[in-house]
Queue: 3 jobs
Job 1
Amino acid sequence: MIKTGILNMGIHNFRNMNIKPFLFLLFFSVNGNAQVTWKKSELDIGLISELGDIPIRYEFTNTGNVPVRIKSLHPECGCTSVVLEKREFAPGESGVIDLVFVPGNKSGFIEKKVVVETTSDADRTSNLVFRVRLPERIALRGDKFMWKAGGGEEHQIGYVSSVNSKDPISKIYLTSSDATLFGAKVINFIKDKEWQIEIWPFDASNAIKATIGIDVTFASGAKERKELNIAVE
């Protein structure tokens, strides 16, 4: 009877033990974990001196104890392509993801990202971000296009040219945010090199303001828009 009681009590206690944590640890130790560690997931490239395709590289290491696999990559736009030589990496193995950013007719500050999905246990989705400042395609010199109220409606002149002499401006089109306030015209001042824009207020007796859009088409077919804030103050 004593032995039976001890046996029954042991079985009862074992049945009431919380063995779920033990099973989880056993499962975890058998299956291991995958971990992608990025050297840098955000890259600030800075100012690019010349337009052209921009190569970008992200480096990473599998710091887990089982192989990790890159499942998919999703660039934010068609201007970015992905080059990936392999998709699976052993524990301790390092790899790279190469991007090629094609600026096209973009200029100024650009920020883009690529979403990467992996089998990493910690972060299955990573955002790879890069920032770049592209050179301006359009050079503008001349008057400031500012008038004093009551000072007259004199015409002010500016000159527009392509920063890249190998890709000159072939066409310029001017638009105004309010065509009732300001007049504007453009002429090809120096053929294939420089264009002259002329802007004037119809009535400079009171303070007014508007925006003039300069839509430029280059010989290569690339297009760019530059905006001027003009005002009678």
Job 2
Amino acid sequence: MIYNPWWICISLVLIALCIFLRYRNFKPKFILPSTKLSPTKYWLTTISVGMVLVCIILLPLHLGFVSGKTLQIQKSTPVQIMLDVSLSMAATDIPPSRFSVAKSYLVDAVHHLQGYDVSLITFSGIPFISLPFSHDTPAIVQSLQTMSLADFPAAPEFLGTALGDALVLGAANIHRLSADQPWMVLLITDGDNNKGYDPADIFSLLQKQHIAVRVLAIWQTDYLIGYDQYQQPIVTSLNIPLLQTIAQQTSGTFLNVINTGDLQPFFASFLSAVKANEISHISSQYRYLDEFLLIFLFISLLVLGFMQVIILSQYLKNK
């Protein structure tokens, strides 16, 4: 039961009013006694007063009964997506391109994360939070669907792949939301760490925050992204040992995708790992009697007021 102090005050006032009215009706010199009424009107008045008293006594108790039960699922594992948007993601060794394939499967995965806290970090030479943690799955899906590599600048400071910096930003983003729960990080990349922090230097931070990193490497062959000022080729390659170490040190997993057929099992496993921490519990749905009591109270007060008018009219006739 929930006690409402306002209803208790209202109840006391109404009880006092009922007692006062009832007391008045038994004063022959002031108003016609209710005993002078016909038996039907007398009992109608008595029942109305009783109903008013019952309603104003029960209303503050906020009485209710169980009308049904529902299964509720607490989705307790926030998901941090980290997507490589460096120039090499435009490679077509996994058609139509590494970026397009990754984005397509990400969109499908996010559709299955309805109700979860999901955030998106994009990174190349500099990482940044594209989408903060949110339950708004449609907005995240729309952002992914409209995203392209052309959205990211090709300025010199953005060239390269800063895996370590991205992991540091991801850990900080996670800590802002909450650090006291299991986390799932999905890292999608096709290269090596060649800028910023060394990922090996932040393994302890990731372990302390219980952040499991699942690494998806999308790479089949080295990719020529251009030539430097000396006309020397700039080729990107995948650092498999580094990515494997990131996964191992954080109790995550690693997969190097060389064809799209490997992506479906990976994302299915990822979603299963996320949903493994769901907490299910059955909650009761209550139907409260307040609305019925208010109706009875209103009707009873109308009847009581009507009877008072009758008593007053008889009094005026007999005066």
Job 3
Amino acid sequence: MASRISELVIDAADPERLAGFWSEVLGYVEFEREDDGSIAIGPAGVGFGGPSPVLVISPSDDPRRGKLRLHIDVSPTDRDQEAELARLLALGAKPVDVGQTGDESWQVLADPEGNEFCLLRERIRPVAANPPAPWTVRPETAADVPGVRAVEVAAFPTPLEADLVDALRADPDAWIPGLSLVAEAPDGTVVAHALLTRCHIGEEPALCLAPVAVLPAHQRTGAGSAVIRAALDAARALGEHAVTVLGHPEYYPRFGFTRASAHGVLPAFEVPDEAMMVLGLDAGRPLPTGRIRYAAPFGT
């Protein structure tokens, strides 16, 4: 056996911008944000450990610019070098003069933060064109109840979240059919779960996103993001609008959540202001204002 290159880390003054650039260059998607503000991007539906290395764009107050001791070479897959060069320049890459004669088989470019990389002439086959996700996302069924509990127990240090899900499922004022979403592996194992239940903002009905859980072995694959997006899509299809979440302020904004206090939405108990967030599913409707009131099983 041998080691494999699993991650390449790039320091950046603006990780958001640089992650967006390299996502477009490589056809990657964002699948994780770290506590320090790093953004991990990789092939859709694969994530860490797949055939292609993950790029981690890490915030830095003093990122190196120009020629790095280790730099990235990219090769076109579905077009010739000239056409790919035009695409990269349109994305924001800049040509770099390193004394080329014009006869080289490579083009030297710089990304939006000045990191140099090369576009090679030879085309290669893509690893996979639109690789399928290693799981299927769908609404929970009665047969999934043990699997959902297993995910919650494995993902959290205590069974409190698993007990909460069971209590919410038994509460007709909280449970909304179709808004408990699971990701199922090919062998039938439930690997991720996201739940939306009824809450209120002031006197207006809203939804609470909690909990979200992923089996440890399937974390950093995009499964958690997939079940969250599916849950939000299902809520939108039901005509729901306001969704609240108490969670990591570096993670949930990717789904459209913003600071709740900026919209006049107040938490039910004292929490860090940036951790309480809200999302409107219908851009044509204002968000309700007032204090969040959770379903009884939350115990608030």
